[in-house]
Amino acid sequence: MIINHPLLGPRDASEFTYLGDAKLIDRPDWQSDTAAQDFYEYGYLRTNPAGEHRELWFHEAGDRSWLVVTRNTLTHEISAVEMARDVARAQGRSK
Amino acid sequence: MRYSGFKVIKEALTGHKGWKPAWRDPVPQAHYDIIIIGGGGHGLATAYYLAKEFGGKKIAVLEKGWIGGGNVGRNTTIVRSNYLLDGNEPFYEMSLKLWEGLEQDFNYNAMVSQRGILNLIHSDAQRDAFTRRGNAMILNGADAEMLTTGQILDRYPFLNVDNARFPIKGGLAQHRGGTVRHDAVAWGYARGADIRGVDIIQNCEVTGFRIENGKAIGVETSRGYIGANKIGCAVAGSSSRLMSKVDMQLPMESHVLQAFVSEGLKPVIPGVITFGAGHFYCSQSDKGGLVFGGDLDGYNSYAQRGNMPVVEDVCESGMALMPMLGRARLLRMWGGVMDMSMDGSPIIDKTHIDGLYFNGGWCYGGFKATPASGYCFAHLLARDMPHPNATAFRFDRFSRGLMIDEKGMGNQPNLH
């Protein structure tokens, strides 16, 4: 697989390590009344779709940036690559 | 029809005209006592033990394609019970004992071969860990023996024990481990279940569940609605897809794992060798091919095929361990979809829906578990109580902090 890095252009997927579902950006509020349940769902439950999947990849052997990659789990086709910090900012998660 | 040596000779002399299909091709009935979704190893074993040990019920196995076409036909055929943790080891030892008696039990030649499995040691820390594991195995009634490098070389003289990065310093052997002809496991269970009245319905995909007042009452399928008192799901890599039909999110990700077989060679590898540090394990099939594999590709996938970097990594690891491999040509490679759970251990449990039961999360260790998984799932379906050896495989262990994490990797499925 080739991941089209927004800053560096097309890079081989073997330069990256894989974390998983991009919902991991949305860390729950630890002060919430439902924090125990929220962190259980955040840490352990996944939608695990067959089809389009937004997921976090880390460019470990490259510029060490985190990316949100939209990839089809049935075909391995990659349709979008974004900087994870841009995604997090758009969600109000990061400065 | 019972199979026997006498029957083989008789058929050989009469032109093999007396063989009958090993299982029927029945039309689905309107209602069953128990429906098993998934005609793989675990689903067929569940139906077999339900009919044989917990008898007297109308049972059907629904399979969307043909039976045995998923992971039971794609694995590397290894059976073993070399686990460490209390939640796991009694279960896997039960499975190994069932393997030992399986062929007589279901009257089918599954080519169970207890040729032994060897885990290699490369450092003092690994020796400590494997000594502890071996002791845990012995405490649970399994067999384990620590071997020296010399003892290993007696059996496997071709191993490169002086590798600069991972020199071989010994190994943990389980002599009762080995290999089994994987397709024959599916066929043997299917035939055994069919003889006992189980309807095995192929080309019948479950498209939805019918739930009334919090109770599952049947399934919608590509061959119409089928009612059931109880429904058991055993669909391996497709677990999340199936359970999403009742809006369940599972503690698992589906990953692709590749496996390989070389061209046929004369007998060179007498047992199973695992090289954990190099992500490589290997055995030789009775047909002569070297059967080997390595790590997951590492990303969510339902594609049943992997990518080249892992192929390269596995072959490099193989070459580091057994330089003789370089002369063998790769014949085939393939991929299967694993439902990787968050702690690397499986789930055999009820769901929050009455009458709906779940068996999955086997990661890449499902094949060796087939008999015990079937037996314990049958126990749960028939008696509504977990089998004593499978009490730890619960859904709620993640919310209660009771994970069974053999590798100590945490909730990162691609590392288990």
Give a description of the structure:
By secondary structure, chain A is an alpha+beta fold. Chain A has one domain: Folate-binding fold (2-Layer Sandwich), CATH 3.30.2270.10. Chain A has helices at residues 35-44, 84-90; strands at residues 2-5, 9-12, 17-21, 52-58, 66-72, 78-83. Chain A has a four-stranded antiparallel beta sheet. In chain A, strands 1-2 form a two-stranded antiparallel sheet. Chain B is 28% helix and 26% strand. Chain B has two domains: 19-77 and 182-251 and 343-415, 3-Layer(bba) Sandwich (FAD/NAD(P)-binding domain); 113-178 and 253-341, D-Amino Acid Oxidase, Chain A, domain 2. Chain B is built from ten helices and 18 strands. The model of chain B has no long low-confidence stretch (mean pLDDT 96). The A-B interface holds A 1, 12-14, 17-21, 36-37, 40-41, 43-50, 53, 55, 71, 73-76 and B 238, 240-241, 244, 249-254, 298-303, 307, 309, 342, 398-399, 411-414.
Highlighted features:
heterodimer, A: 95 residues, alpha+beta, Folate-binding fold, 4-stranded antiparallel beta sheet, two-stranded antiparallel sheet, B: 416 residues, alpha/beta, FAD/NAD(P)-binding domain, D-Amino Acid Oxidase, Chain A, domain 2, 2 domains, 10 helices, 18 strands, globular
Note the topology.
The complex is a heterodimer of chains A (95) and B (416).
Chain A: E1 2-5, E2 9-12, E3 17-21, H1 35-44, E4 52-58, E5 66-72, E6 78-83, H2 84-90
Chain B: H1 5-13, E1 31-37, H2 41-53, E2 59-62, E3 78-79, H3 89-106, E4 117-121, H4 124-139, E5 145-147, H5 149-155, E6 170-174, E7 178-179, H6 182-195, E8 199-201, E9 206-212, E10 215-221, E11 224-233, H7 239-243, E12 252-264, E13 272-275, E14 280-284, E15 289-300, H8 308-321, E16 330-341, E17 347-350, E18 356-360, H9 366-383, H10 397-400
